[in-house]
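Give me the fold.
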Amino acid sequence: MLLLLGGFLVLMLLGVPVAIAMASSSLLYILVSGVTPDVTLAQRMIAGVESFPLLAVPFFILAGNLMNIAGVTGRIYKFAVALVGWMRGGLGHVNIIGSVIFSGMSGTAIADAAGLGTIEIKAMKDHGYTTEFSVGVTAASATLGPIIPPSLPFVIYGMMANVSIGALFLGGVIPGIVMTLLMMATVTYFAHRNNWGSDTPFSWPQLGSAGLEITIVLAFPLAIWLMTLAGMSTNMAVVIGLGTLLAIDWYFDFSAVMALMAPVILIGGMTLGWFTPTEAAVAAVIWSLFLGLVRYRTMTLKTVAKATFDTIETTASVLFIVTAASIFAWLLTVSQAAQLLSDWMLSITHNKWVFLALANVLILFVGCFIDTTAAITILVPILLPIVLKLGIDPIHFGLIMTLNLMIGLLHPPLGMVLFVLARVAKLSVERTTVAILPWLVPLLIALIAITYIPELTLWLPKYMGLSK
């Protein structure tokens, strides 16, 4: 255990990329211990990515990239301004609502920060907000990406923990709402403390238009249900519903109706059993292409090619981490290191609430140093046996782990959202870190609530019959 974990930590401290550090320490352990033939390294790494759920990874990444180049981010921003821009600290609220909507399409915090963040930070600075406040609220709202479905970390966790990815997706809905409300309360606090006004004048027509768009989107599943009650097949009802929706949107040229439909289609499709979470990722790509090439006509073959190559690069990086982490996690199990760590944690407490507090501290610490995908792949084999032994629902624990790791993305030394926003805002990493610190308060409050009120996570999956 000392050789495996010690080698990994030494390589990390030397600045070696996390995937190479895990693969190298694993190879060193195999060569020195002789526990298994060295060819096992390649076999286990390949086995680590031979998983159907992992097919969702490149498609969700591609969907996020396509949304960014299709001009959807600008339409989402315009819609959010109409909806909440009139409130005190308006663009802060716009930032958060925009992230909520974009989260229903991209599933990643980095895509949110890089896509919407570029628009939001510039707009907030133009309206007189400090760069630090603009960066802080953008960073905090970006953590909503992997909590509100769909979510790439949920896909990885579901694969590792062998739990329903659809249940994890539904489990993230209410926690995402709680986080949204806490962040908006924080914006309100800053607005009152600094005596900020609104950023756009209150307008009934604008607010009515935004409300109408939401009503149309919410009416879509209701219309489908009514048509099926009338004896129409579900497939026919959906075709008629989408055709009608497209005609209405085309005629009135709404700002974001079709973008708002993305989470409805994905979650509705999975709930009705039309496609699995993996197939939902493909549906997200098809919907993105439809919006960019047909509805908004903002895509070209050149931009689609660029989005594709960006996706290949990102996917290769993510899957290389998964392959390296899979052999590392397997060796942790084979060497009994995972069992020893599990026994050590159980020797401290058998109380599940105390364990969850310790697990939060551990995951939060790991998330500051290790990439999200690698952290999930390493920690699940160690912590999941304890979770099951203490009677904690693995879906509940998946939300806890994901939120901890999202908070870790905001911290040095390896917080990717931190570095992305520092580049976007042209701030030093040190100033960006200080700007984010006040926003840890609502995130940590949300973490505590999600940890100790399991029904926030479990009620919706149970209601929809995806969890016991």
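The first helix runs from residue 2 to 13.
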